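Bumping my old thread because nobody answered last time. Still need a sequence for this structure:
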């Protein structure tokens, strides 16, 4: 009996950022999308304190990338809640 194999059809890639407006995703500019993210992170930090923020980074990333992630968490967000999953 022959098995039919399905060809993998990847989803089309996004070419523009999306933000949620009234529950619906709407296309927007990169500047606006980044502002929405920054405003959301700032609002959580201001309302719940810096320890409400946590971050994971990948142990397979470069040391420089993990350093940038921990600096963002500590300096920008004010949180020590960062884990780079360095368990081997």
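Sorry it took so long. Here it is:
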């Amino acid at each position: 009996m022959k098995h039919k194999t399905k060809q993998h059809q990847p989803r089309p890639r996004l070419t523009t950022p999306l933000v949620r407006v009234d529950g619906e995703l709407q296309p927007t500019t990169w500047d606006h999308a980044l502002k929405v993210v920054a405003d959301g992170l700032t609002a959580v930090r201001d309302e719940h304190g810096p320890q409400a923020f946590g971050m994971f980074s990948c142990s397979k990333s470069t040391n420089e990338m993990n350093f940038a992630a921990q600096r963002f968490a500590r300096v920008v967000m004010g949180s020590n809640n960062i884990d780079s999953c360095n368990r081997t």
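The first helix runs from residue 30 to 48. Let me know if any region looks off to you.
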